[in-house]
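Request from the bench team (R.T.):
"We need a structural guess for the complex before ordering more magnesium ion. Sequence and SMILES attached. Just send the tokens back."

Command: build protein-magnesium ion structure.
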Amino acid sequence: AGVAEQAPTAQKSPTLTIGVSQEAVGLDPHIVTAFSSMRRLDLLYNRLVRLDDNMQVVPDLAESWEIPNNLTYIFHLRKGVKFHNGRELTADDVKYSLERVLDPATASPGRSYISTISKIEVVDAYTVKLTLSAPLASLLDALTSNNISIVPKEAVQANGNLQRVAVGTGPYMLQEWVVDNSMTLVKNPNYFEAGLPKSDQIIFRVIPEEASLYAGVRSGNLDLATINDGATIRQAKSDKNVVVMSKPGMNVRVFSFNNQKKPFDDIRVRQAVALALDRSEILTMAEYGMGAATGPIPISAKVWAISPDKLPLGKTDYAKAKQLLADAGYPNGFSFDIVCSSTYEGGLAVAQVVQNQLKNIGLTANLDVVEWGNYIDRWVKRDFATMVELRGGSSEPDRFLYRSLHSTGGVNNFMYKDAETDALLELGREQTDPAQRKATYDKVQEVLSEKAPLVFLYSPNENQVTSPYVEGFKQIGNGSLYYVTHAQVIK
Amino acid sequence: MKTPRLLRNKIAMAGLVLILLYVLMSVVSLFWLPFDPLAMHAEQILQQPSFATGHLFGTDEFGRDILSRIMKGTSVSFIISVSATALGAVIGIFMGVWAGYLGGKADNVIMRIADILFSFPSLLLAIFIMAVLGEHTYNVVLAIGIVYIPQFARISRGAIIALKGNEFIRAAKSNGAGRNYILAHHLLPNITAPLIVQISLSLSTAILLESALSFLGLGVQPPNPSWGNMLSSARKVMMFAPWTAVYPGLAIVLLVLGFNLLGDGLRDILDPRLRNVR
Amino acid sequence: MKESPILQVEALMTEFKTERGIVNAVNKVSFDVERGQTLGIVGESGSGKSVTNLSILRLIEFPPGRITGGKVLFHDKDLLTATEHEILGIRGKHISMIFQDPLTSLNPVIKIWKQIAEALILHQGMKKKEAKMQAIELLRIIGIPDPQTRAECYPHQFSGGMRQRVMIAMALSCNPDILIADEPTTALDVTIQAQILELIRARRDQQQTSVIMITHDLGVIAEMCDQVCVMYAGRIVEKADVLDLFQSPKHPYTQGLLDSIPRLDRTGVERLHSIKGSPPDLLHLPEGCPFRERCDKAMNRCVSELPPELVLDGSSSPRKVACWLYADKEEAHAKA
Amino acid sequence: MGKYIIKRLLSLVPVLIGVSLIVFFLVRMIPGSALQMYMGTQVEATPEQMEELKRLFGEDKPIPVLYIEWVGDLLKGDFGYSLRTGRPVLPDILNRLPISLELTLYSLILALLIGIPLGVLSSLRQNTFGDFLNRVFGLIGLSLPQFWLAALMVIAFSNSQGWIPMGNYISLLQDPLKNLKMFFLPSLAIGFGFAAVVMRYTRNSMLEVLQMDYVRTAKAKGLPHRKVILIHALKNAILPVITVTGFNAGYLLGGSIVIEEVFALPGMGRLALYAINQRDYPVIQAIVLVIATLFVLVNLVTDLVYALADPRIRLVDEKR
Amino acid sequence: MQKRDVLLEIRDLKVHFPLEKGILFKKNVGSVRAVDGVSFSVYKGESLGLVGESGCGKSTTIMALARLERITEGQVLFEGKDLATLKAEELTRARKDFQIIFQDPYSSLDPRMRVLDIVAEPMRIFTKKGILSLSEKEIEEKALSLMDKCGLSASYAKRYPHEFSGGQRQRIGIARALSLGPKLILADEPVSALDVSIQSQILNLLKDLQKEFDLTFLFIAHDLSVVEYFCNRVAVMYLGNIVEMASSNALYKDPMHPYTKALLSAVPIPDPVAATTRKRLILKGDVPSPSVVRPGCPFFERCHMAMPMCKERKPRLLEVGEDHQVACFLYEKVEGDVHA
Ligand SMILES: Nc1ncnc2c1ncn2[C@@H]1O[C@H](COP(=O)(O)OP(=O)(O)OP(=O)(O)O)[C@@H](O)[C@H]1O
Ligand SMILES: Nc1ncnc2c1ncn2[C@@H]1O[C@H](COP(=O)(O)OP(=O)(O)OP(=O)(O)O)[C@@H](O)[C@H]1O
Ligand SMILES: [Mg+2]
Ligand SMILES: [Mg+2]
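Reply to R.T.: structure attached below.
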């Protein structure tokens, strides 16, 4: 029997098929905002530095770098890196790319990450020096962003922008793109990392139904799929035909208040709500347990994050919450709206659980479920009392918290203005010493939990479902598919 | 004469019985439900249907009782389908009757408007309207109602044009009856038969349309249960908890079937072709 | 003794099941058709003329209709018990029919020649091409101008009169023994009616075809027929030679009928006779004679007993009447 | 006939003008904008950047001006660029068209294959138990929500290779067998309900036709039952079925959104849904125009087919 | 010749139906000349019959003169007033005096109305418009008495039309036509749809009513025997034109127009003896289309006496005898010869 059961010599399949639920929205790394586009850019372009599967900043196009002071960064580039068009990458390309990001006319979302860069100097063909106008502790982390990929000038000039073409240095090259159907990438034979990529071809397929994605992996139509939906993952976990990879991601589910709107301008009211929300129940019901409770810094950013039960108001306490409400003048509660949407980001399920939990302290929440476009409209116009959101976090506390909660933060839609918080965030931004920074951000987490301008609920897991034949894939934790480069199907 | 005909038509009666069962269910649901349809129970998530727990149709992903939610959803479905049909019928019939009666230019203009509405696929049109107006139950009514307008306009126009050729209309004219008089006394009463059939069929499609809209996340919004949004949220879990999709689906199928049976039966009864004349 | 009749209908009964009850549309109807002769059947709307003739060829739709009794002997073969195959061989070949409404009796989506050729292919085993030639020839015979091109037309491109002629061409294509014409001219104008009747007459005389002519127009009967049956409420109330019938109608209904039509040959009539009341509802036929409620001469007996068919002596041949008036008369002797 | 077609095509113009006006303004009445969707909730932008973006997204001019510009471009054959993908709109739509067309076609074929025979059988056995079963079956078909049926199919067939398209469109030319296989379930999900419609129409129309005098004439000719039904009755009974089929074809072309969504078929309906969700105005406008055009064209084809099937219909007024 | 009062005079009435083409912008591409220049008078108390084959324009003529069809050209003088140009309100007033009995007893009664309401409806409308002033009770009483006169028992009052036979329905229609006390009855083939035994009942009823209410009839039929029986004067129509007009006696004894002759000879006579001896004049072909414009005699194509000139000119309606007019060159020529 032993002989008979022996598998025929395992064979490597040249193609790896990836299922995703959303189509990429353009491919210009400096312009795109959509998460779905980033996942393709992971494979098409490189940045100066990247994150590894432990969320550590490691070399990418830059072989090494020096930080002589907190205003100066010097990068030494790899030699012999070639763009897909065959030209070698030099320091000029880095300068051009960073300048393009910084140019307001490009309207790049990456601009805000690196806006303190005041000078970019080409030292030699393989050396670039960046000078900052103000210290930015999160600069290295910012440079790992897909939005700050290095692109060739001539490709931009030839096409106007890079939305429909891809001329990167990445492990794969764009071969065919049939919108809302498939995108085919082929191996870059000149890729600079020896032995990579492993598969000759990658095909992305767009399958909007998460259940269908899972079915696709099961039936062998797909080799790997990214699935957000907890219910589907829960089922996949009990399925021997597939392998589920799951770890808390960088995103944070939050319940946010409009801090200037009655009654949530009253800190006691916000605190009461915070005390009434049971993170583990929300996780169970809205995510099927596929996530981890978190405080202001995503729990997976292990270096910085403090678990919410160690922070103020981290444990449910209805009595105290009711007391706070009574103090604030609402002994009998009140009613208000929660804006949410039925997309995953819109957090409809979370809103329903929140609504249910707030009944415990006598608050009546009405769900204002709106279509996604409306949701964003409301968000932009700050037309909400409370809202369920999914915030894109970061392993770098400054990058996430400053723009969200500093009174001048670009995405501080909570209308939160607090001098103490502002001061702390500004301090953290300048500090380069890790221990000092840690202390600052510990304090930040405490203050934010106490003042509750929003309630940080949990970080949903990032999940990949693969067929058992896929080898070599690793999750980073921020959704990136970089490690697809290391993956291959062996049947 | 009328009632016994209806009673003797098996198909219509089957439909009527089904509909009445639902009406009963929706009335009962106003006063009594097995469980609170909105109450969540973390410890009872996705339980199988069972007598022991009392959740006859099982529970959903928030541990809510599915039977109670279906029952609660009945009134929503009724309200939406009845008011949307009423809206579409009133406006559509008004347009169609005048177009058919006046003929000529007025007919041309009215029917071109209906044609333009018609050349939008119904679901797409409904989606549009929902997107513009926002997701509220009354907007669902509006969206479906607007979709219905051209249908009613066409049918009533056709019926009026067919009637116009009858000699009794000429007779009334020759007796000095004016336009409005003829419309009210002779035309409208005589187009009720095709309209009744259309109405009962519209009631059924309204339920399907509402559920399709809800399925796309545009219909009745949670936590209020509607059969469509129950199915929509069941989509994620139905592979391992099929009851979450099966029962709301059946609820839709049976009520729609009820209206369709009634409509088909009424058509038999009211269609003179299938009757022995004279 | 003359030649035996080509078709004998005996005690034919046909009923319809309707929502409101059973309609006895044809009730014990008997008559014979002689070779080369024309039998007329008259009666008011709903008296069962069409159903009688449809029953002969078993063309009654079941449901709701059903032939419940009687015999139809064609060459001593009972068509009512014949196999489906046998009856198909008779329809269109030995017995063919023309219907009242030429507008609806032709299939609107099939070309004229095809509709004629169908029977030829079926019964005469012709090839398609041959059948087409024959169809065109038939069109020429019935007087359609330019038959070659007209054969390619569809029925709606023909006028009513032309369509009825096509029907006749179709019916006569296989030289049938019997032609049943069910009100062939009712839907047509008088001038066209005259054309059609002329055509039927000519074909009958040439081919020795027997004809059953159904009509409610006594004028047509007088012009076309040799024998006449008068039907009332699903029964034959009088059967006679055409001359006898018009000269001395026996049944009160026949008498009333003849008196109540305005006639061009008797101008200046001040007031028509009219039969009171209206034809009975076949669903609720009264007991006794169905005509008694409208009959001036009704007797007590008429109320309770259905009059049997009585045989009287006619001037040229025996005639039959179903009326109690003649029961006691010398001349009458009940049929065996 | 040629003249008739040209006339019908000309009648497209007012419909398209009406449709384009409605769409153009309606779309802009939907709260939210493409720019907002693009920015999402995560992105910061400086005021200069916002200005630039507004220009790029065409939000810097009043709507009527935009409309006129758009129509002007349309007349030059330029359908504009997608705000979502930055790709030209027309090729993207043309890419999806075959999928929607195929889906529509297959569903119709399935529906006719199921519906017509059942309808005929049912009419021949009017008021029998078989007829009753048939009708109830048909009514159930009408009562099943398409998406529900589709979802159940996805569950049932999730293990079998090739039956669920999975976003993987294989064209008919590429591999006819695989193409048919992947379209089978989606077509069935749509076709099932429509088969019920076809069945009802066939049945009713057969019942009517069977009472016609010409059917009796055919029988009186001695034609066997089968021929009477198939040649004489069905040819006439099929006419109303042509009309509903054409009508539904017009609808399906843009209307199978839910099925495309569930089976991940990249057709027009899905494109439309996404475009609405993303406020991708140029795409929405173009799709609606294309769908309206198709609708009118399909109606024209239906009328032509009808005229072929029914010689009484004359497309041009001939002299009698 | 006694002096007769003219009740209705029609002068050169034309009714053309436009044939339209086009989808968006309809344009006229000719017309159906349903009535193409008809003139005649109806005298008080008489019954004028209008006969002709199907489609020759009989119905259109009376629908037009009752202003239920658009009049293309011509005058309709009713008691001196031109109905063709009356304003709506005056027209309504005038309608009281002329009423229509329709051909189809099934479609001429609203299936949703009760018999009593059908008969009472005209009175109700006129009361509402203030032209009559009757109380509801009076209206009902009058309706019931009319029904009684027309042979409908009062017990039928609450029934619906579908519960009646064709003959009874026609009686309802007649009662309705009488309800406003009209002077002129326009009867459009009132007995064509009825069985022979019922036909005579209705004809008799009409005759009785004519006497009782002093009615004038314009009576359409395609059955010549019926017209002969019912009318004292007859007009024969062919393709929108009157080809011959005479008193019944004259027309039937001595038809002059070739069409009238053919028509009369085509009527089957219920007398088998006469039938065998009668000489028939069988016309070829069908009635041609009224949408073709023809300058000549409308009967030209089918006439066995046709002359070349018939194709070119349309013959006028000429007086050929006492109260006998014919539109045919055969007679015009004779007349012309006399003058020459
Ligand atoms: N399909 C049917 N269903 C029920 N009753 C029917 C059907 N066909 C005929 N009848 C009934 O049978 C009776 C006889 O009808 P038939 O058609 O023979 O009359 P007819 O003498 O030919 O009359 P007409 O002169 O109107 O043609 C009528 O009372 C009619 O109601
Ligand atoms: N509304 C209309 N539009 C076009 N043509 C019409 C219209 N009404 C009648 N006609 C045509 O006018 C001609 C005369 O029709 P009309 O009804 O007056 O004839 P008729 O003599 O009453 O015939 P019948 O004996 O059939 O009732 C016919 O050729 C008819 O086709
Ligand atoms: Mg008959
Ligand atoms: Mg007429």
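Two things stood out. The mean pLDDT of chain A is 88. Residues E 58-59, 188 surround magnesium ion (ligand 4) (CB under 6 Å).
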